[in-house]
Structure formats: structure tokens, C-alpha cells
Design brief:
By secondary structure, the protein is an alpha/beta fold. The protein is built from seven helices and 24 strands. Helix 4 links the parallel strand 12 and strand 13.
Length: about 425
Amino acid sequence: MPSSRRHIVILGGGTAGTIMANRLARHYAPDLEVGAIDISVVDENDRHIYQPGLLFLPFGMYDAEDVVKPRGEQLPPTVHYVQATIAHVDTDAALVVLEGGRQLTYDVLIIATGTRTAPDETEGMSGPGWQERVFDWYTLEGASGLGKAMATFNRGNLVISITDMPIKCPVAPLEFAFLADWYFQQRGVREQVTISYVTPLDAAFTKPAAAQALAHLLEEKGIQLVTEFATGSIDGAAGKLISFDEREVAFDLLAVVPVHTGATFLLKAPGLANAMGFVKTDPATLQSKHRPNIFAIGDATDVPASKAGSVAHFEAEVLEQNVIQFLAGEPLTNTFDGHANCFIETGFHKALLIDFNYETEPVTGHFPFSVGPLSLLKESRLNHLGKMAFKYVYWHALLPGYDIPGVPTHMSLAGKDL
């Protein structure tokens, strides 16, 4: 007779996958105890990286041990942690096939595989100069190498460049530029260092109101803004960033954000993901557009929200209820509104905060309540303290999947200057 046990398989043990595993494990605790539900998390390595912390490595504000913990330790004992490489997903048979041939059946599949950097997608990026004068900081290795290069960089052109969108932590390149200005001022060499911020966008950021405020900050700090620069190639030997329309930006040190793509194995299931490897996802329910028993969360989706940790947290609160309803044979009634909030570190112990969703742009005002205590789209020391406190919140509240008091899943308009 077929087993009555229901299998939930989560692909990816990063931020989104870990949050979902913890939330579902709490909800289904009685079912897990009697074997009625089985939850498995699959990831190819046991290194959980606190992604927001990578920004601080090049400036000596964090060390590698501050941002890395064993992945398995972030999951409850009732969840099966499977350390393996995923070969492909058979969506017709509801099977996850691992390298080596092992198969995992699922009643619900949650894809939380995030996004990966792909330097080889850009001509010359990983060629001469890579990890010597051309670095990324979206990987632990890149951020650590860039830190060593920054420590001995005393004069010349520092270029911060975004190759293409979308990227995870979309405000991080701006934060890097602001922190670099502060870093070189602290070292007394800022007048000898030119900083340029190069983006394929037509403004400093994707949201108009925020872009205006951020462009003003770049100008105030003497950081050159280069817009609509579609990077075609990088000549690391000559120190040139070259656009498809043959414009050039010279650099002595390049901090680059490579092209981001989804997990390559997702492309083996026709119709599951778009050409970049991001899961075709209903932006409201987070259900896959390919199969009803597949859901996606976090950076792995193609929804028009920021690829940021706060988004994964808000999505998880919605997705938990939708998975529960799906397994119960009920209609999905919970919706995600695209809610995101991000601290933007601006240096000198200050930061901005933005809060927005699918429909509402970042605006000025207060957060999370109508009286604050945090200010929106304005620099403050309190925002900086919030940014620095987030590491503790991440490990002890967000990753375990707890709701954060005062910060609702759906964006609140209280305190906002609309």
C-alpha cells in the first residue's frame, strides 16, 4: 500500500530555504513526530554565509568567521539535511534526482536555490587581472581578496560596477561606494583616490525617489555616477571596463558585481525557469507557474521584487500558509505584496532606510511605526545601528523563521509621507 506520509522537499539551505524549513517544522511538529510529514533540505555544501556581512569584509569591519556558520546547525533536528549536489528535477514524476542517482520524492517542492554569480558570462572578467585588480564581493573568496587589495590601495581609480540586473542585495553596490569613500578618508588617501559608480540603469537605483536621494549622496561624496553603461567586456590587463557601445571606464581597482543567474539544474526541467534560471513564479501566491505542487521563494524566483533577505522573510510568512493550504487541499488565499526594506550604509556611522513593495515607491517618513523610531530615506546614526544589529537579528530571529515584532508581512503605510 502506498505510504500516507507527505514529503516536503526544500532545495537550497540559504536564507529562504532555512527560514521555510524552520517555520514548517514548527507548524508540523506533531506530524513530524509521528511520521505523517517529512521535511528535507538539500544543499551541496555545509557553509551558510550571512550575505549582508560580505559587504563589510573588504573594509575590515567583519572577518570571515563573522559571516559563516555550519548550514546544518541552522536547522531543527526534525528536518533531514541532505548535503548533496542536485542533478535535476523531474517535475512530471515529482522527483528530485541527486548526483550519484539518489532520488527524493515530494508532495511539495520548495525551490530556494537563490542566485549565483557568473563571472564567465562577461568577456574578460575572469581573465587577466581576476582576483588581482578585478574582484567581486558577492562571494566569500572575492570579498576576502578585495579586502587585501583595498588595504594597499593608496591612489588611482576605484570603479564599482554592476554588470547587469537583477542582482541580490541590490543596494550593496551603492553601500560599497559610500563605505569606500569613508574608508579612504579614514586612511588619509581619499584625495588620491577617484571613485566611480558604474551602472546599467538610467539612475543610481531602480526606484525613482530613492534614486534621487542616492544620486545626491554620491555627488556630495565626490563619487562619479556613470549610468546606462552596459558592460560588454573587461580588459583586466589594461584596466578598462568596456561597454557594448564601446565607451570605456579606466580602473586601477575594479569592484564588480558579475551577472547573476539561477541554479543551472533548473533549466533541465522545460518550462520551470526562465532563460536566466529563475523559477517562473506567481508574484502573489509564490506558486510555480509550471506545476501546482512546486513553490519558489527568495532569490530563486522571477517575481519583480528585490532579491534581498527581507523579501525572503516576508515571502516565507505567506508561503508557509500557502503550503499548509495546498497540502490540505484548500485554495491558496495568502498573497505577497512585494514588500522589501533595506538599510543602506552610507559611512561615518550613518545609514538610510527604504521600505517599499510592488506598488509603493520608497518615500520619506518613519518606520516601523508612525512615530518611528527609524527615519526613511534620511541618513541617521540610528539607522546605522539598525544595520549593524541586523546580524544578530538574522541568526537569532530571521533565520529561525520568527516574526519580527512591529514589522508586518505586508507593507504598512503608517508614518509614510505619501
